[in-house]
Amino acid sequence: MKKVLKLNARSVVEVKDGGECQCVKLNFQVYKDGKPNFGSHVIIYRREETGYVFDYDEWEYFDCLLPREDEIVFDGELEIDNTFCEYTDYDVEVGKTYVYWVGRERFGEYLTGPAPVTVRDRRVWWHFDEVLEKTYALQKDFPELITLEQVGNTVFGKPLMAIFAGDRTKPVVACVGAVHAGESGPEILLPLVRELAREQSELLKKSCLAILPVVNADMREKMVDGAPWYIRTNAAGVDINRNLDADWDLTDYSYNLSSADYRSPTYRGPYPNSEPEVRAVLQFLKLADPRVAFSFHGPCSVTAEGMIVSKSATGDEAYLAMADQIKQIYSDHFRDAIDFPKRENYKAGIACSAGSIPTYLYHRGIPAFDLELSGDLHMLDGSIRGNTTPEMISLMVQAHKAGLISMLKRYGK
């Protein structure tokens, strides 16, 4: 019996010919007759899967896909290390999705796969190591303005670091990033903080911007490594934005899904605050004690200023009026920064679920918003299908910087 087991494909960056390049690395284990096989002849098949659509198709799309004989990209011997083989495919393009299969004989009974991977643009999707590196660099470069605090860990033990830019004794504006793995956060927030520290030091002496750049770091790392599908939940299968102890017992049916169903991508978890990432968010909010908070959503590392508040605020006219005012101010400055027409009478939507950050803060009287795409900002439309560009990121850094400056001035008086 000839077997290939544990086939894994991931997108990596390597130094090749004196420069960095992106490639796909396959790892797999080879067995023969139930014993480790130290012969390493393998056949590798690859297909560029053009039919897969991000945020429409899920992981099931790849089930039962089989290769064609003309899709062989390697047929030969590989070095073996303790029964494991590795193959690096350098002939890949950023933004494309590939599917791999590995066998020991042509179309043999023991063909293993499929293993799908999307080669993600590392200017748009940052590895967690890069997020940490850029976070620590902020404190090093601006020691008098920026302090850091670890507020918790992820399921897999990644440290979640909060950034405080400014005077923490003054009113705080808080931002939380990447609660959902496939959405926005560090790629906008970290450059934004750096620019504020460089350009707005006087403003930060009268106010404070608190940032938790990435929450769902485990599964975001999985997407950076090439998981083609959009991921909401953490590594334990819980939607972090449904897990906070804030009307948690109310089942939410957003997207025609039940937050009470453990199989759902909006699963609220076994009990309130069950997830370590949620406890980290709560610690961050306790330390920040914000006057206003924004949770960055939107698809694929980018979002606009479409603001929504908690469904629990329905009928609370005073709170909604305050939310509308904040949204209008933020949006006006956001759009001025990118020279885009303003929206008149721009009201906050009411859509955030039970167990969400905005719901938690609503019950404490604090205006809080999920930031989503805006329907008229068509320059971001490509992000919905996974085609976010570095130019989109740069544009949103400038726009959100202007929006947050308006909030720091509003609350820093």
Summarize the SSE layout with pairings:
Blueprint: E1 2-16, E2 19-32, E3 35-36, E4 41-48, E5 72-77, E6 80-81, E7 84-89, E8 97-103, E9 112-118, H1 128-141, E10 146-153, E11 159-166, E12 172-176, H2 186-199, H3 201-204, E13 208-212, H4 217-224, H5 276-288, E14 292-296, E15 306-310, H6 317-337, E16 349-352, H7 357-362, E17 368-372, H8 390-411
Parallel strand pairs: 12-13, 12-14, 14-17, 15-16
Antiparallel strand pairs: 1-2, 2-3, 2-7, 4-5, 4-8, 6-7, 8-9, 10-11, 11-13, 15-17
Helix pairs in contact: 1-2, 2-8, 6-8
Q: How many DSSP E strands?
A: 17
- The CATH topology label of the largest domain is Aminopeptidase
Q: Span from first to last CA?
A: 75 Å
How would the global form be characterised? elongated
| Succession of helices and strands | EEEEEEEEEHEEEHHEHHEEHEHEH
Point out poorly predicted stretches. Answer: none
Give the biggest sheet. Answer: 8 strands, mixed
Mean pLDDT: 94
Portion of residues in beta strands equals 25-35%
Secondary-structure-based class equals alpha+beta
Total DSSP helices: 8
Spatial sequence of strands, sheet with the most strands: 10-11-13-12-14-17-15-16
Query: How helical, in percent, are the residues?
Result: 10-25%
